[in-house]
Amino acid sequence: MVDASQSRRLKVCVLGATGSIGTNTLDVVSRHPDRYEVFAISGAQRVDELFAQCLQWRPSFAVMPQETYAAALRTRLGEAGVPTEVLSGEQSLCDIASHPEVDVVMGAIVGAAGLPPCLAAARAGKRLLLANKEALVVGGGLFMQAVREGGATLLPIDSEHSAIFQCLPEDAATWGARIDHIVLTASGGPFRQRDPATFKDITPEQACAHPNWVMGRKISVDSATMMNKALEVIEARWLFDLEPEQIKVVLHPQSIIHSMVVCRDRSVLAQLGTPDMRVPIAYGLSWPERIESGADLLDFTRLSALTFEAPDAKRYPALQLAWETLLGVPGSTCVLNAANEVAVEAFLNRRIRFDQIHHVNAQSLSDCVMPSGAASSVDGLLALDQDARRLAAAIVNGIAA
Hints:
Blueprint: E1 10-15, H1 20-30, E2 36-42, H2 47-57, E3 61-64, H3 67-80, E4 85-88, H4 90-97, E5 104-107, H5 115-123, E6 127-130, H6 134-139, H7 141-150, E7 153-156, H8 159-167, H9 175-178, E8 179-186, H10 204-207, H11 217-225, H12 227-239, E9 247-251, E10 257-263, E11 268-272, H13 278-286, H14 321-326, H15 332-348, H16 357-367, H17 378-400
Parallel strand pairs: 1-2, 1-5, 2-3, 3-4, 5-6, 6-7, 8-9
Antiparallel strand pairs: 8-10, 10-11
Helix pairs in contact: 2-3, 4-5, 11-15, 15-16, 15-17, 16-17
């Protein structure tokens, strides 16, 4: 485990540096130049943003999976005289995540693409700040096994899972004896009070306008459908070694209580704060210490009310898929994640309606044939992921035809 109090600066690798989590991570790092330095960063396609980050941070490495984008970045950095080495290919993501000089890895690549580099970081024994929930949704037991065998320190960055983690004692061996269940809070997204009969008219712009959080387009759509919360239920099952029935969800529109732990004696522990992702990021970077995050203080005198309600199954049919897949055939959660990525992309590209996202996901789960043992290896999971994507794409094509 990395000791954040040591005198040398910790070297940080930010996977997904150009996304909202990545930029927030760099913001927190910038507030503590005596503690951290940026060693490596990655981005998918945003050459301009990654170029600007390389100019500011001058990391040793920058990775863009596609060589076309990597070449463009390489040329611009060369012209600017920045010595950052630009790499391409998915293996390069794994290489920087497991690099011997790296102390801390922020896993913020969206989707199943984040699984291999996060696994590489876990196997290399890094402090892994996990914002990529799909790594656990797809990998599950395999991922947690890699964490244990590699001696990695796994710290959740999703605000809900960070809240649960902050409410628990440091000795994970005692969690089972203390927890009755956990409660993940959800804002309800932008359509919490909208008539479900009008969901067919929702545009991508409306779905991406989250009332409380600033997030990327895919995650914003997931929040609107509550698939984001379904994936968080699956993630929580693995992070905290819980049975599916020990995970509850409640709507909390104000996003002030980020999640709760209900103890066996019925005490309830909650973590509160302003809706700012820099708080869990700062906690992950500095754990078990706490450092300045840049977030605003929570002013209790300005809170008119904290309200809670049960999620409506008709409004949020995606949520129930979490428990169905956790109790289903091994590999079901992988299929759900893959199908949802395809469905959300199709919605954002205006090929299907908002209310058809759930149909694609449910139909994919129903139709996908999962080979025996597919969930027992990374190769098997990645093959299942590709099969599910092809199936989901065919369903989308049938709708869009």
